[in-house]
Design brief:
The structure is a single chain. With about 400 residues, the protein is an alpha+beta fold. The strands form five sheets. Strands 8-12-11-10-9 form a five-stranded mixed β-sheet, with no helix packed on it. Strands 3-2-1-21 form a four-stranded antiparallel β-sheet, with no helix packed on it. A hairpin with a 2-residue loop joins β13 and β14. The longest helix is centred in the last third of the chain and has 45 residues. The chain is rod-shaped.
Length: about 400
């Protein structure tokens, strides 16, 4: 080993030790989410098309499996957009960018081309094997060449804006996936020199470094690499001992098997997906005031206005007692009592002061009728006496 290689290996060891060891960024994340890490993993069998698996690499449980209908690779998760980006092969003009949402729905965004191309030419990233997203940069790797695709909305969206050749190629040639953290890409090298070693890639310079104390079991291809919130590194060997195996590299350097399955022709993964934020509680709408239901009890009748007292008829002038002479006739009133004008709403009740006067007039009228009857009786008596006297005188004359 040369002095330069010794320095390079030591620097990579320090970088990976900082990742899987006491990372100031990952420590609080581990306290929040423990070992749970939901990833979207593209698994490709011998038939050539991929299926998408929603896998919690912390527990090894699968929550959903979908089939997009084409081969997917180089997945990367954008936390700001909450979308997984992937490269779809076998479509027109080479590699197309595809997004995958939480519901498993895929959307084709069209071919990935170079910045400055006015027409959608053949994509330069066809055949990429590794992908990861950091901010608005999507890093894609093919045969030791790292491409940076711009995800900023605008004219350069999905355009290759930078190309970097990785070195040494003896470590970078067989890197089939990586994860982004704090400006570096973390992957697994399976070259004769790497043999399952964890490596770091600087996307600005293309420098590749190896860590001596962070290593997975040797395998032909590690197609999926994801960095957990607790600082652990997860990697899926597509084929090892006739099976595909998902390993977990602890911060202490210990490697454990999470799960195994049928061998895969290709795989890639992106995560950890951030937990969806709970919706804020919606304020309860004001409860409407209940309308009282009508009951069978009839409503109490409202008091009707009392009828206004009808005005008493104006007393008319009684005939003078002089027309019927009587022995003791009292003088009749010379004029009728005056009546006050009636108000427009309801006439006032007759004043009490008019009552004695009315009683006098009624009494006078009764006395006048009584005197008339008395006169008639006296006249009839006088007539009987006269007739009786005449008859008696005639009888005396006839007797003579």
């Amino acid at each position: 080993m040369s002095a330069v290689d010794g320095v390079t290996r030591a620097a990579a060891t320090v970088a990976v030790a900082g990742l899987v060891g006491a990372s100031a960024l990952l420590a609080p994340m581990a306290a929040r989410a423990a070992e749970s890490c939901l990833v979207v993993q593209a698994e490709t069998g011998s038939y050539g098309k991929s299926k998408l698996r929603w896998l919690d690499v912390g527990s090894g449980t699968t929550s959903r499996v979908t089939e997009p209908g084409y081969r997917l690779n180089a997945l990367g998760y954008s936390a700001t957009r909450d979308l997984v980006f992937g490269v779809a092969e076998g479509l027109s003009r080479g590699a197309h960018a595809v997004t995958i949402d939480r519901a498993g729905k895929t959307r084709d965004l069209g071919p990935i081309t170079r910045a400055g191309n006015r027409l959608p030419l053949w994509s330069p990233v066809a055949g990429v094997t590794a992908g990861a997203i950091g901010g608005d940069s999507w890093y894609l790797l093919r045969n030791g060449t790292l491409y940076t695709v711009d995800l900023t909305p605008g004219e350069r969206f999905l355009r290759v804006i930078k190309t970097v050749f990785l070195r040494p190629i003896t470590l970078a040639h067989d890197v089939n996936d990586f994860a982004y953290h704090n400006g570096l890409l973390y992957g697994v090298s399976t070259t004769w020199r790497g043999k399952g070693a964890v490596i770091t890639i600087d996307p600005e310079t293309g420098k590749v470094r190896e860590a001596e104390d962070a290593r997975f079991p040797p395998a032909d291809v590690y197609g999926s690499v994801v960095l957990g919130r607790d600082g652990a590194l997860y990697a899926t060997a597509n084929r090892i001992g006739g099976r595909s195996v998902l390993y977990r590299l602890e911060r202490s350097g210990q490697v454990t098997v999470v799960l195994s399955g049928p061998p895969l022709a290709g795989s890639d993964a992106a995560g950890c997906l951030t937990a969806p934020e709970p919706e804020p509680p919606k304020p309860e709408p004001p409860q409407p005031t209940p309308t009282p239901s009508p009951t069978s009890t009839p409503p109490s009748p409202s008091p009707s206005p009392s009828p206004s007292p009808s005005p008493s008829p104006s007393p008319t002038q009684t005939p003078s007692s002089s027309s019927s002479p009587s022995p003791s006739s009292s003088p009749a009133p010379t004029s009728a009592p005056q009546v006050m004008p009636q108000p427009p709403v309801s006439p006032p009740r007759p004043s009490r002061s008019a009552a004695p006067r009315e009683r006098k007039e009624v009494a006078a009228e009764v006395d006048a009728h009584a005197r008339t009857k008395e006169k008639r009786r006296w006249g009839l008596t006088a007539l009987v006496l006269i007739l009786g006297g005449g008859a008696a005188a005639g009888a005396v004359r006839r007797a003579r």
